[in-house]
Amino acid sequence: MQFETIFNDSSSTVSFNEDITAATIGGNTYPVTWSVQENGRRILRIGYRIYKIDDVEREGHHVSFTMNGVRHQVEVKDEQDLLLERLGFQTDTAASAGSVRAPMPGKILELLVTEKDSVELGDPVAILEAMKMENELKAPASGIITEIHVQNGDSVEKNQPLIEIEPSG
pTM for the complete prediction? Predict the structure, then answer.
């Protein structure tokens, strides 16, 4: 099984063997073990490193979780998604590329764009405070800001539309 992960604008390919006891990451192969505890915590061992994973949430290709006490957000594409992209078909991630949604409940600390602004893929568009941490939300596509649904200080729910971008190109 092969996956592409995008974390902090960095893309990596991760492959697992058939019985998921080994992972190849960045050309290096490591032994892998995975277990789920009664309280829902997942314990992942890759090589000699152990990771405690909690509060896993998945919405399409976007996965958010707490690892060793730090909140992370990752985009994950599987073999089928990668094949469809190579063939030129839109996946659900690409189809919704013009919408910035709240990845978790929180408060809008700062909008970094206004309507009619031009943005590039990955440009910061807003700061969301969630779980006492500031999260920079980025443009999922290059284009023009067509609508902003929130204001600074607004409380938002998970998946609430925040900003609409009309993709260019």
Answer: 0.49
